[in-house]
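Appendix B: a complete holo record

For completeness, this appendix reproduces one full record from the ligand-bound portion of the collection. The bound molecule is magnesium ion. The inputs are the chain sequence and the ligand SMILES; the output is the full three-dimensional arrangement of the complex, encoded as structure tokens. No fields have been trimmed.
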Amino acid sequence: MNEPLLDIQNLRVDFHTDGGVVHAVRNVSITLAPGEIRGLVGESGSGKSVTSLSVLGLLGTPRARVEGGAIVFRGENLLDKTEKEMRGIRGSHIGLVSQNALSALDPSFTIGAQLIEVIRLHQKVGKETARKKALESLELVALPDPARRMKAYPHELSGGQRQRVVIAIALACRPELLLADEPTTALDATVQKQILDLLLEINRELGTAILIVTHDFGVVSHVCSQVTVMRHGEVMEAGTTAAVLEEPKHPYTQGLMSAVPKLHLDDATRAVPRSNRRLYEFKQLVSAQGETR
Ligand SMILES: Nc1ncnc2c1ncn2[C@@H]1O[C@H](COP(=O)(O)OP(=O)(O)OP(=O)(O)O)[C@@H](O)[C@H]1O
Ligand SMILES: [Mg+2]
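The structure of the chain with magnesium ion bound, as generated:
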């Protein structure tokens, strides 16, 4: 078997708050093979974001403490890295796409300037080369008229276009791993599907492994081959998306899945063998959401 690209082993993260210790992540293990897309799914507060931000060393508060475990990326434990070493890994080897594209972009700089800055931060290239790479990244995410968009400010773009730019920035240095935390939650259903399809295309074209954090099983069934289900900081179950959707082992997973509205069984659904039906219904649901707006 291939060595995993990312191997989170028994990770434990606590927050030391005035009200006491919050055990946000309890012995969580997640692996991601090179080029794999895994969904990390669970209700609000289950520890999805804390887990993914731990990978980048971006917990953002001294109250957060990694109490145990290992985060092995390309064979090295990221928990042993210095902040300086982590800066070399973030962006270059691991990209981050967050939910709110507007807050991820600086309103006072053009799209081009922000892309060029990220590229020059991580790669020793001149301004012209960086500009070329920036343009390539905008082409990669299929932003219409990329040369003109380079000169645009974030507020001049639609929500979906802004999220494409955030993805372009995350991919500018062609990282092996993309962490996407609720990348489509803030978008309407049509745009949501377009962005998910874009992530699939990037995965196919560049071989980028993607960890998609979501509360939505529809997203998981559309793009993820593997899924890990979390609750209260723990892993409830993990496996191939098809297996977990078909036979969720834990009642919590069944509950999460039933929170996604069901489609009426149409003739095409009935023609699908029973064992594949649930997966098929989810796929139908996602594509129907895309078409109804
Ligand atoms: N800065 C913080 N200080 C204290 N507790 C925190 C902090 N950040 C997160 N937590 C706690 O850690 C737990 C996990 O939070 P996390 O943000 O990972 O949840 P999540 O699964 O990403 O939820 P959501 O779907 O709402 O984004 C929660 O109990 C949360 O209250
Ligand atoms: Mg979160």
